[in-house]
């Protein structure tokens, strides 16, 4: 049998597909290759790859699995002047969004005093899964901090920026939809999700899959700062357009079945999935140039730039597809919010919320947790029953 190898297909300097396959000889990059999808059966695709060589172009047939993604999900969609990974996901994956995500990553690092995670790392060679990795900033830095780690960085689409880091020996970028059944064969020590408010219709299902794919004693970490979840603290008196913007995003999320709030960062949601030792961390930060302290002003400037870059990114597709806005109306709302953000007398504060939870180390602990929750529900039910009195 031919050896297993990783195949990274690149066209016009854009990552199209990275998969595990069986092929005649291992190769990593097919620069300028032509890829023809010939047939599909059970999410397994037979493709013809015409790859250039120094003397001629040859055809290689490989049988590859893209897990839950289809050939359609490998095609970018241009809409409203933004580039999206497919027809459905609401956030763009173009250069402007790349800039915003880079800044957001730096903000997290500052707020966490240089730490990449608030979860304990139980070993020097952990297995780590980064769901919704985007351009891979977090996963790439984790791969450097833990050179003995095995890291899978997964997303529904790809950013061009990831191309320059594909040679890292301990990180594997994959295209996968986290809302479909996970098929990882080995459990993880840490599963990380950040900035995915609105991405999933069923967060409890995501947490159940994460629980299943963690080692006993492994951790999940979930972080978010969605403007629709009131993570920019404002009032209708001081920022009426910002409040209207957040409300419109929440309405759009409700209409399409993808909630845009921080309900997935509640302790009880992780507890229902079976996690223990649940811990919440919140950090606040200025948005704008109003702080007098130089360090605070620096992070305020970064947060302001990220907020301005994110206005249309968060709003255009949801508002036009799920909230009844025309493109002009959506852009006008974003423009009004921008004016508020840039007002000299504006004093806005943002916050991030990070939740961690641990998978119990034994079946006995898991069973004890389930029984404790069941008993608590019985007590709650008994407390709600009417009390009979003698007459």
From TrEMBL:
Source taxon at top rank: Eukaryota
One example GO MF annotation: methyltransferase activity
One Pfam family named in its UniProt record: Methyltransf_23
Protein name: S-adenosyl-L-methionine-dependent methyltransferase
Organism whose genome encodes this protein: Penicillium chermesinum
């Amino acid at each position: 049998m031919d050896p297993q190898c990783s195949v990274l297909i690149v066209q016009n300097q854009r990552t199209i597909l990275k998969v595990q396959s069986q092929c005649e000889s291992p190769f990593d990059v097919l620069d300028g290759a032509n890829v023809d999808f010939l047939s599909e059966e059970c999410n397994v695709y037979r493709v013809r790859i015409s790859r250039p060589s120094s003397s001629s172009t040859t055809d290689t047939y490989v049988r590859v699995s893209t897990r839950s993604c289809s050939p359609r999900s490998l095609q970018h969609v241009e809409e409203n002047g933004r580039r999206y990974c497919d027809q459905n996901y609401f956030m763009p994956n173009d250069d402007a969004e790349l800039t915003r995500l880079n800044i957001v990553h730096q903000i997290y690092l500052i707020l966490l005093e240089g730490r990449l995670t608030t979860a304990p790392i139980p070993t020097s060679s952990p297995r780590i899964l980064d769901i919704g990795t985007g351009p891979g900033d977090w996963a790439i830095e984790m791969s450097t901090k833990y050179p003995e780690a095995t890291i899978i960085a997964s997303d529904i689409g790809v950013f061009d920026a990831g191309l320059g880091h594909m040679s890292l020996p301990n990180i594997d970028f994959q295209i996968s939809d986290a809302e479909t059944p996970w098929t990882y064969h080995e459990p993880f020590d840490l599963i990380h999700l950040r900035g995915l408010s609105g991405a999933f219709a069923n967060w409890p299902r995501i947490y159940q899959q994460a629980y299943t794919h963690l080692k006993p004693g492994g951790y999940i970490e979930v972080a978010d700062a969605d403007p629709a979840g009131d993570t920019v603290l404002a009032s209708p008196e001081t920022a009426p357009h910002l409040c209207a913007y957040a409300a419109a995003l929440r309405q759009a999320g409700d209409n399409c079945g993808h909630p845009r709030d921080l309900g997935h960062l509640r302790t009880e949601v992780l507890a229902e999935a079976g996690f223990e030792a649940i811990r919440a961390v919140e950090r606040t930060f200025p948005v704008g140039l109003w702080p007098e302290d130089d360090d605070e002003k620096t992070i305020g400037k970064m947060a302001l730039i990220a907020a301005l870059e994110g206005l249309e990114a968060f709003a255009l597709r949801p508002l036009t597809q799920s909230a009844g806005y025309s493109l002009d109306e959506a852009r006008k709302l974003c423009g009004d919010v921008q004016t508020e953000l840039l007002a000299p007398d504006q004093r806005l504060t943002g916050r991030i919320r990070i939740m961690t939870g641990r998978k119990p180390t034994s079946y006995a602990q898991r069973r004890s947790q389930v029984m404790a929750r069941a008993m608590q529900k019985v007590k709650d039910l008994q407390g709600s029953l009417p009390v009979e009195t003698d007459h």
